[in-house]
Amino acid sequence: MHFRLKLIQIGNSLGVTLPKEMLADLNLEKGDTVTVISAPGGYRLTPYDADVERQIEEGRAVMREYRDTLRALAK
């Protein structure tokens, strides 16, 4: 599926309106939270998942704690 969305003014911000088909595919309703993740070639929009959010935060904590070790391994 391919959607072309237009940016609209919402107060002092910009936003997009998601088509009904996209909301149905993502099983989203008014008031739901979504997660936007940077992905190769753009961004990925998914329904919010508390478990995934927890895993991402734990991964970031590990990367902060072992930053020097990870940097050395990357060489």
Description of the structure:
With 75 residues, the chain is an alpha+beta fold. The chain has one domain (8-74). It has three helices and four strands. A two-stranded antiparallel sheet has the order 1-2. A two-stranded antiparallel sheet has the order 3-4. It is elongated, with a radius of gyration of 17 Å. It starts with 7 loop residues before the first strand and ends with a helix. The model has no long low-confidence stretch (mean pLDDT 91).
The SS-based structural class is: alpha+beta
Give the N-to-C terminal Cα separation.
Answer: 40 Å
What summary fits the major beta sheet? Answer: 2 strands, antiparallel
Principal-axis shape: elongated
Task: Report the count of strand segments.
Answer: 4
Radius of gyration: 17 Å
List the domain count as a whole number.
1
Q: What percentage of residues falls in helices of 4 or more residues?
A: 40-55%
Strand order, largest beta sheet: 1-2
Please trace the helix and strand order, writing H or E for each element: EEHEEHH
Spans with pLDDT under 50 lasting ≥5 residues?
none
Number of helices: 3
In what range is the share of β-strand residues? 15-25%
Query: Could you tell me the mean pLDDT?
Result: 91
